[in-house]
TrEMBL record:
Descriptive protein name: FAD synthase
Source species taxonomy: Archaea, Methanobacteriati, Methanobacteriota, Stenosarchaea group, Methanomicrobia
Presence of keyword Ribonucleoprotein: no
Organism: Methanolobus halotolerans
Record family assignment: Belongs to the archaeal FAD synthase family.
Location of the Cytidyltransferase-like domain: 5-132
Length: 145
């Protein structure tokens, strides 16, 4: 039984997320998802949707066996608990495969890190773009009032 972990924020789900999770699931037999905590996100705006609500939504996807909230202070904590064989990075996740594998080995964890390098293109296959679009709509509405 090959266990795979996928990670991400998953704020405002879109087909790009489903594409990534489907590809990650194809790398093994079961898919766990670690949903990033809002408190851990520093490289982009904090998610709109609360932590537990994002976990609930990801958990309801048929491609996902189990979604859990991430740790609030150590990204290796869920890895120690879930003990995956593979960690699937998304196409735009900034982690370096070799560095992450080195960090895992120093902690006695033997998961392999694989990148899902393909991405799904669609008009709004990005949470950031969806939010931008909503702001544009609000501004248009205000101008027309
Ligand atoms: C192996 C791995 C484990 C992670 N574990 C956690 C975690 O425990 N808690 C958390 O908040 N985020 C965790 N993350 C998520 C990242 O820290 C980062 O916040 C996340 O990738 C969000 O960025 P993104 O949505 O742009 O991918 C983990 C990421 C990776 C690759
Ligand atoms: N269009 C896409 N195609 C393939 N994978 C994607 C796509 N969008 C996101 N992912 C993957 O889904 C995971 C979670 O992504 P994340 O929650 O950061 O969403 P996002 O739409 O990229 O957000 P943002 O637009 O705010 O950066 C990451 O591994 C990311 O690489």
């Amino acid at each position: 039984m090959v266990r795979v972990i996928a990670t991400g924020t998953f704020d405002l789900l879109h087909p790009g997320h489903i594409f990534y999770l489907t590809k990650a699931r194809e790398l093994g037999d079961e898919l766990y998802v670690v949903v990033a905590r809002g408190s851990m996100i520093r490289h982009k705006p904090k998610p709109v949707i609360p932590d537990e609500q994002r976990v609930d939504v990801v958990n309801s996807l048929s491609v996902v066996d189990k979604a859990v909230p991430g740790s609030e202070n150590d990204i290796f904590e869920p890895i120690r608990e879930i003990k995956p064989d593979i960690i699937a990075l998304g196409f735009d996740q900034t982690f370096d495969i070799d560095d992450l594998e080195k960090e895992l080995r120093t902690r006695g964890l033997d998961a392999r890190v694989v990148r899902v390098s393909e991405s799904r293109t669609c008009p709004l296959c990005s949470t950031g773009k969806i939010i931008k679009k909503i702001f544009e709509r609000c501004n248009e509405k205000t101008r027309h009032e």
